[in-house]
């Protein structure tokens, strides 16, 4: 019988392959995105020292208060603007986008586009 690998394992393998090529530096940190069934998370990470410089998610009270749902495209777009504003406050203007093995469409694309419109360059 042919058995299929789970979607989660496929995504994790894609992310592992991507991470071998993508790395955040001090000048250009990595914008890492993760989405679960209920929430979205975004972090800006400096991989040279392993520090998270900026983080935002739909679990935060100030972000969650402005959203009707936390797992749709509108929530992703709002999270993109929030993470971009926080990054610009810390002086981060350029990042490397790490889509986390997810397909670049829907929520992931909405977050990326909103972050670009808010002033991040990638």
Offer a concise description of the structure.
By secondary structure, this protein is an alpha+beta fold. The protein has helices at 7-21, 61-65, 73-89, 107-117, and strands at residues 30-35, 40-46, 51-57, 96-98.
Would you mind describing this structure in some detail?
By secondary structure, the chain is of the alpha+beta class. Strand 2 and strand 3 form a beta hairpin. 39% of the residues lie in helices and 19% in strands. The mean pLDDT is 96. Helix 3 packs parallel to helix 4. It is built from four helices and four strands, in the order H-E-E-E-H-H-E-H.
Key descriptive features of the protein:
122 residues; alpha+beta; four-stranded mixed sheet; 39% helix; 19% strand
Number of strands: 4
Classify the secondary structure makeup into a structural class. Answer: alpha+beta
**First CA to last CA: what distance?**
44 Å
Shape verdict: globular
Main β sheet profile? 4 strands, mixed
Structural Rg: 15 Å
Biggest sheet, spatial arrangement of strands: 3-2-1-4
Q: What does the average pLDDT come to? A: 96
Low-pLDDT windows of residues: none
Could you tell me the strand content as a percent range? 15-25%
Portion in helices: 25-40%
Order of helices and strands: HEEEHHEH
Query: How many individual helices?
Result: 4
């Amino acid at each position: 019988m042919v058995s299929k690998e789970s979607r989660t394992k496929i995504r994790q393998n894609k992310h592992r392959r991507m991470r071998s090529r993508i790395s955040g530096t001090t000048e250009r940190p990595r914008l890492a995105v993760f989405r679960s069934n209920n929430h979205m998370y975004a972090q800006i990470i400096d991989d040279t020292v392993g520090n998270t410089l900026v983080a935002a998610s739909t679990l935060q009270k100030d972000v969650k208060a402005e959203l009707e749902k936390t797992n749709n495209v509108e929530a992703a777009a709002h999270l993109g603007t929030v993470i971009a504003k926080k990054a610009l406050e810390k002086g981060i203007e350029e990042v490397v986008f790490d889509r986390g093995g997810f397909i670049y469409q829907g929520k992931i694309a909405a977050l990326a586009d909103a972050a670009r419109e808010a002033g991040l360059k990638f």
